[in-house]
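hey can u check if this looks right to u? its 149 residues, i copy pasted from the old doc so theres a chance i mangled smth
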Amino acid sequence: MFEDIYNFLPLSKNLFTGGMPKAEELRDAAGQGVQVVVNLALHNIPNALPEEQKLVRSLDMTYINIPVVWNHPTQENLNEFLDVMDAHSEEKVLVHCEANYRATAFPALYRILRLGWRPEDALGVMHQIWNEEKYPVWKKFIEESISNP
């Protein structure tokens, strides 16, 4: 059921990404050992899970929200995400947003900037879900993040 999250993509045995989860999917994620939920979406989007933070914490998982505005991702957003991933690198983490675009882009950049992955490999994984070529703001953000770490 955890794997039924919209646009779900397992990146490793400890890192998963997806769109906006439903309450029962988060319950299943907790049951499958997920320890940290990182939400990159804003709380006021139409399909936001009401009281997600309260639910996640009630399931004994850590909840972190880094609200990334879709048309304006910032270096501050990325830096906060990189630090969160470093801090939780030994834990099982679910990163999500609304459709798993932000939630695949930021882990791709983490892999490039902190883990030393080649950009074509990290972005190739992201491209299983979406392609930044269709979104000029994101294409520029990704390119600038890689070239000016």
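The longest strand covers residues 15-18.
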